[in-house]
């Protein structure tokens, strides 16, 4: 089995910063794409940021220039540095990993709440 454990969510004022982390453990040969998604109340889950094994990144339009995704392949971790947070960034943030273990399987974290007050 594979576990994704997220940390770093919380409450912050508008304009502030938070750093999310996600550690992947378990039956893993390697990890392909990792990323962060978010879901606000009444809205669909959306892509926040994605990163490949080689470090190529993609960001959602609403976070481009404010958020930075990074990963440590040796530690199987992925991080999301969030700056200039706005109330519309309020959501549950989910870590995702596409894991190779004889086949590719998608795993999700349990989610961490990020709340930005105005």
How would you sum up this structure, described in words?
By secondary structure, the chain is mainly beta. 0% of the residues lie in helices and 60% in strands. It has no helices and eleven strands. It has strands at 2-7, 10-13, 18-26, 30-39, 46-51, 57-59, 67-72, 77-82, 91-100, 104-108, 112-117. Strands 2, 4, 5, 6, 9, 10 and 11 form a seven-stranded mixed sheet that branches. The chain has a four-stranded antiparallel sheet with strand order 1-3-8-7, with no helix packed on it. A hairpin with a 3-residue loop joins β9 (91-100) and β10 (104-108). It starts with a strand and ends with a strand. The mean pLDDT is 96.
Largest pleated sheet: 7 strands, mixed
Percent range for helical residues?
A: under 10%
Oligomer: single chain
Number of helices: 0
Helix- and strand-based class? mainly beta
Question: How much strand content do the residues show?
Answer: over 45%
Task: Identify the overall geometry.
Answer: elongated
Low-confidence stretches: none
Q: Report the span from N to C terminus.
A: 40 Å
Order of helices and strands: EEEEEEEEEEE
Number of strands: 11
Radius of gyration: 14 Å
> How confident is the prediction overall: mean pLDDT?
96
């Amino acid at each position: 089995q594979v576990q994704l454990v997220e940390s770093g969510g919380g409450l912050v004022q508008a304009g502030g910063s938070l750093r999310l982390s996600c550690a992947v453990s378990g039956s893993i040969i390697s990890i392909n794409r990792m990323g962060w998604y978010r879901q606000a109340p009444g809205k669909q889950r959306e892509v926040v940021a994605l990163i490949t094994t080689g470090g190529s990144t993609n960001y959602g339009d609403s976070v481009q220039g404010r958020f930075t995704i990074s990963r440590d392949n040796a530690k199987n971790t992925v991080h999301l540095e969030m700056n200039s947070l706005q109330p519309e960034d309020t959501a549950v943030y989910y870590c995702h990993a596409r894991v190779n273990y004889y086949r590719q399987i998608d795993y999700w974290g349990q989610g961490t709440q990020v709340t930005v007050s105005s």
